Amino acid sequence: MSRHQESDKSRPGSARQGGYKKTSNSRGNAPVRKAPSKFAAKPEAPKEAPKATKSPKRPSNPDEIRLNRYISNSGMCSRRDADIYIQSGNVKVNGVVITEMGYRVKLTDTVQFDGVTITPEKKEYIVLNKPKNFSTAGDDAPGSANVLDLVRNASKANLLPVGRMDKTTTGLLLFTNDTEIVQKFTVPNQRSSKVYQVSLDKNLKFEDLERVQKGLIIDDHKVFVEEITYIEDQPKSEIGIKMKTSNVKVVRKIFEHLKYDVLKVDRVTFAGLTKKNLPRGDWRFLTEQEIINLKNA
């Protein structure tokens, strides 16, 4: 037996030297951790609490719209601002003050915002070069021609003519669903100018022209004109007259008061709008700049 084999086995030593293997805590000999089996039962997930049942929604009526949206669609203000106006009591529906949030209205209801009747439609503005034999009156006999027939396919909006024109009067006629514009150009004390070309049955005397320029008393009211002239290169029976009124009847009364027969009245300009490039019987939408000018007229 060799010297190495005779050594005490109780002493630790190398395996090569015949000793026992020392337990090692080094990385390479670390105890192996068992991975959990993929077949192990998974813990049960906690059961979800039953969801609360929602109350059924009230079916929406396609003919109704929230009041704040109605106001916003009319262009008066945003929905948020509309809520403030509603809470403040500044909105009426069919004559009744409404302060309830979420109140719904029908499109046929009459809504007033700060005293002004509004509509939820997009504001549209159309100018027509009106021909003869079309009336603006809404009480015409059945079958008679109305100016609305000429612009019926222009828009789905509820367009109204601004002012009245009889069947024999021609020229510029404005249509819109903007009730503020309608009111603005139909009140007696409006500021915008209109120019009319009037055809008389005979030449207008110069002294009568001067009388019109100074102002006439008709039906106990003084009628003022801004300007009256003979049409250049035309007979003296062709007259240009500039006034603020949109009532064509007043134009006729001026000359009838002086014993002239009015054969024709043609509105050449209206609040800055002209008939340029607009043939008789045709219509067109106003440009953005024209709308701005119209509101400032």
Structural topology:
Elements: E1 64-66, H1 67-73, H2 79-87, E2 91-93, E3 96-97, E4 104-106, E5 111-113, E6 116-118, E7 125-130, H3 148-151, E8 160-161, E9 170-176, H4 179-184, E10 194-200, H5 206-214, E11 216-218, E12 221-223, E13 227-230, E14 238-243, H6 248-257, E15 262-270, E16 273-274, E17 283-285, H7 288-296
Parallel strand pairs: 9-15
Antiparallel strand pairs: 1-4, 2-3, 2-5, 5-6, 7-9, 7-17, 8-9, 10-14, 10-15, 11-12, 13-14, 15-16
Helix pairs in contact: 1-2
How would you describe what is shown here?
Strand 5 and strand 6 form a beta hairpin. The protein has 297 residues and is an alpha+beta fold. About 4% of the residues have low confidence. The strands form 4 sheets. Strands 7, 8, 9, 10, 13, 14, 15, 16 and 17 form a 9-stranded mixed beta sheet that branches. A 4-stranded antiparallel beta sheet has the order 3-2-5-6, with no helix packed on it. The longest helix has 10 residues. It is 18% helix and 23% strand. The radius of gyration is 44 Å and the shape is elongated.
